[in-house]
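Quick one: structure for this chain?
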Amino acid sequence: MDKKQETILFQVQQEIIKTLDQQISTLEKELEQIIEQDPELQNLYQLLIGIKGIGVVTARFLIVCTVGFTAFKT
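Got it. Here's what it folds into:
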C-alpha cells in the first residue's frame, strides 16, 4: 500500500470513528432520557451506580441487557 492509499484509508477510518462517536452520544442521551422518565428505572440506575466499581456506562448496560432486571425470574 502506498502513502496515498494509506492517507485515504486513514481519512475513511477517521470519518467512521466520528460517525460512531456521534451515534453513541445520541444513544447515551436517549437512554438517559428514558431512565429519567421512568421512576423504576431511575431507582435501579441509582442503586447500580451506588455500587463501587459500577459507573454510568455499566449501569445503563445492565439495565438494557436485563430489560430492567425483568428478563429472568430469579
